């Protein structure tokens, strides 16, 4: 015979005590990050949460938010998210990086276009991928370096955005090498000039930001 309809009340349905806080933090993260594909981003969020990995969350809301239909979708905030997820590794597998990229609702064709700037097979040095991402955000080498400093700095937001000169020099040389019209001698003399004018081995936005070549 058919079973009678079950009757439930609030006392019969156990709710895990941690669930309300999980949902609260998830909602705040979604509002701050503004993913263009909430389901895709949510899958990445809870997958990272279950593994104890850095979550795909922006530090703050970015306005206006670019869309895949009108732009690359890539922003400094999203690059910073990727950096939090990958900076503990010197090299990252492109398959894993592509997965993280898609979880941030970024178009795959832009991922491929970025790698066309410096093709790699299976892995890439993380700092180089970050540099390529920064170059995609701006049209000049200095603009790319500005984004890099703001992502890597330990200074508070709105501060000088200082990073170690060694890191700055490594990335600047790398991006410069991708420009066939920029002589190595010019890059070397520019970095040597900068090094003479910095203190404590750190370089910030005010130390280098003036018009330079496009990349």
TrEMBL record:
| Main location per the UniProt record | other
- Superkingdom of this protein's organism: Eukaryota
Where in or outside the cell? Cell projection, Cilium, Flagellum
Give the PANTHER family listed for this entry.
ROPPORIN-1-LIKE PROTEIN (PTHR14952)
Q: What is this protein called?
A: Ropporin-1-like protein
| Keywords in alphabetical order | Cell projection, Cilium, Flagellum
Task: Check the record and name the InterPro entries matching this protein.
Answer: ROP_DD
Q: Which GO terms describe its cellular component?
A: motile cilium
The text of the family note is: Belongs to the ropporin family.
Q: Gene name on record?
A: ROPN1L
């Amino acid at each position: 015979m058919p079973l009678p309809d079950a009757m439930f009340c609030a006392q019969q349905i156990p709710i895990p005590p941690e669930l309300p806080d999980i949902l609260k933090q998830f909602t705040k993260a979604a509002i701050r990050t503004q993913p263009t594909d909430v389901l895709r981003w949510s899958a990445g969020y809870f997958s990272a949460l279950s593994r104890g990995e850095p979550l795909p969350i922006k530090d703050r809301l970015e306005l206006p938010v670019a869309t895949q239909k009108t732009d690359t979708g890539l922003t400094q905030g999203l690059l910073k998210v990727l950096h939090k997820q990958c900076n503990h590794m010197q090299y990252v597998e492109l398959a894993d990086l592509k997965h993280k990229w898609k979880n941030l609702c970024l178009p795959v064709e832009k991922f491929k276009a970025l790698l066309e700037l410096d093709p790699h097979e299976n892995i890439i040095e993380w700092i180089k991928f970050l540099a390529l991402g920064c170059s995609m955000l701006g049209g000049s080498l200095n603009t790319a370096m500005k984004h890099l400093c703001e992502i890597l700095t330990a200074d508070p937001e709105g501060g000088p955005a200082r990073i170690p000169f060694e890191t700055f020099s490594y990335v600047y040389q790398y991006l410069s090498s991708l420009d066939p019209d920029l002589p190595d001698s010019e890059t070397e003399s520019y970095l040597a000039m900068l090094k003479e004018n910095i203190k404590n081995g750190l370089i910030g936005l005010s130390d280098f930001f003036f018009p330079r070549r496009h990349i």
